[in-house]
Amino acid sequence: MKKLSMIRRATLTAALLAIGTMAFAQAPMVKLTLGHGAAPSNPRHEAAVLFADRIKAKTNGRIEIQVAHSAQLGDDAAMVTAMRSGTLDMSANSQGAVASVVPEFATLGLPFLFPNVQKAWQVMDGPIGKELAKRAEAKGMVVLGLWDNGIRQMSNSKRPIKAPADLKGLKMRTPPDAVTVDIMTALGADPQQIKFSELYVALQQGVVDGQENPLTNIASAKLYEVQKYISLTGHKYESAPFLMSKRAWERLTSADQKIFHEAAAEATTTQRRLNKEADDKLIAELKSKGVQIDNVDRKAFVDATKSVYTKWTTGPVGEFATKVVEQANR
User: What is the CA radius of gyration of the chain?
Assistant: First the structure.
């Protein structure tokens, strides 16, 4: 009888294992798409690929994420619209495009708000970031992380920019970001909105004289090839919100949502680190390529852009903008 009981237990165990294996085998494969506008050499792409790899590993290949770089799925604004409608699953997007839907995001880019990227990360990882996430979810997007798009600098093909007066009359490309447009206007430039994917050609053909971007973007998009002068203005910070369509998010099980949060946290830490490391070494690299890099009269730029603070702290998102400023100054 004892031997028979052992056989029964072994048979039952084998049956349960078979059922579990069948259940796993029958679990539907999930394929998602993650789009972004950066080049393959940009930390944004590297972190997106890392995220996709982690998800695939943590789900034993059950969830596969295809990463589409270089605006293959449209510019950032188009990808925001697609996520909200559920036709795109995920995007490592831009602050300006997201701010067109959730205007509070724009306040992270107030001029000279953060002394360094570490302070920006601290603010974004606190109550400010949580509130932004709630507002984004109300608009159909789940914030998985606030990646780093760095401190922005200016470049142009005409002359060195060392003081606000040097910007007068220059046609400067901006992203679709209201704060950036306000900064350029306050400095006397002529802001022109052009898609990032079209920027190189616009600079090459003289449609605009200059632009502003973090050094990592200037380098990965090779904008230095058509811009002789770079000025270290450090005029604003920008995040790169890592988002998922709420519709796609709600199709995940709670267990998979946990996996996504874990993988996103790792990708966020990695992306920020890579972005800062790239930024730190790029001044020397860009100089070696024949680009003239100039420091600026920071106080003159700060004074010239004070009106931007007045506009944003008294405008429609003034209460939130004031909270961001307070957190940045702590």
Answer: 23
Q: Which residue is listed with tokens 């830490």?
A: 269
- Tokens at residue 121, please? 């990360």
Q: Return the closest-CA partner of residue 178 out of 138, 93, 236.
A: 236
| Residue whose structure tokens are 């036709």 | 87
How does pLDDT run across 242-269, given as a tens digit for each residue?
999 999 999 999 999 999 999 999 999 9
For the entire predicted model, the pTM comes to 0.88
The tokens describing 196, both together, are 């990032």
Tens of pLDDT, residue by residue over 194-214, are 999 999 999 999 999 999 999
Q: Which pair of structure tokens corresponds to residue 322?
A: 């004031």
Is the separation of the CB atoms in 264 and 34 below 8 Å?
no
Q: Classify 39 in phi/psi space as left (phi over 0), alpha (psi -120 to 50) or beta.
A: beta
Residue 1 lies in a domain: no
End-to-end CA distance of the chain: 75
Q: Report the number of distinct structural domains present in the chain.
A: 1
Dig out the tokens for 117 from the structure: 């990227």
Structural domain span for residue 97: 17-321
Lowest mean pLDDT among 19-23, 135-139, 219-223: 19-23
**In sequence order, what are the beta bridge partners of 142?**
244
Evaluate whether residue 11 is within a structural domain: no
